[in-house]
Specification:
3 helices; 56% helix; mainly alpha; elongated; 73 residues
């Protein structure tokens, strides 16, 4: 079967009844949802250490204290 493009599919879909168009839309959404859900999820721990160079030479407690002081105006 030769490859079809979006425009060809859209032209064919316009020939369907409104009920068939709604069913097609639901089926396409279902296919897309399954494809999105099948993507591997990322592990939060992959972010460990990301951007750590930004904090080089900064004392963590001093930073927190300065932030808390800024809350008081």
């Amino acid at each position: 079967m030769p490859p079809v493009n979006y425009i060809e599919i859209l032209k064919l879909a316009r020939q369907l009844s409104p009920e068939e168009q709604l069913q097609l839309a639901n089926d396409l959404l279902s296919v897309a949802r399954h494809r999105v859900m099948a993507k591997p999820t990322r592990n939060f721990m992959e972010l460990e250490g990301l951007g750590k160079e930004v904090w080089n030479g900064i004392d963590a407690q001093e930073y927190v204290n300065n932030e808390r002081d800024s809350w008081n105006g």
